[in-house]
Amino acid sequence: MWCRPFDEQTQQRIIDDGEAFLKILEKAHAERKYTIIGSLILDDEVKQIKGRRKREAVKTIMALFISEKVRSFSKSTVRDLKTVGLKDKDALHLAFAAQDHAKYFITTDDYISKRKKGIEKKYKIKVINPIDFIEENGNKI
Known about the structure:
Largest sheet: 2 strands, parallel
Oligomer: single chain
CATH class: Alpha Beta
Order of helices and strands: HEHHEHHEHHEH
Mean pLDDT: 93
CATH topology: Rossmann fold
Number of helices: 8
Helix content: 55-70%
Shape: globular
Radius of gyration: 15 Å
Distance between the termini: 18 Å
């Protein structure tokens, strides 16, 4: 998600996702209505971004907008999330979100989105893409 504004802007979906994500960050920062949380797994993934310029750009916006960092997770939550079909890293991302009692998990990952019903039912975390988040919250975000 954090890379989307810096991905190659060759497809309309990438452009729209990136613009929506930046709008969410801007509104969250300006209005303090939402808390943007980071995690150790997010930090690890950012370190693995191959392009230095892209990696540094992502680090910069994370430093500006993440106001809280989750540093622990439940291993049993990870195991449980894998039973709904999530891959290891995806389960870790959501386990960190569950640990912090996040209301939303904003993602552009279709693989995660296809498994949202199981996640939402068990953890009460709404899995949503940035465009739908904006539409559901109107211009209030």
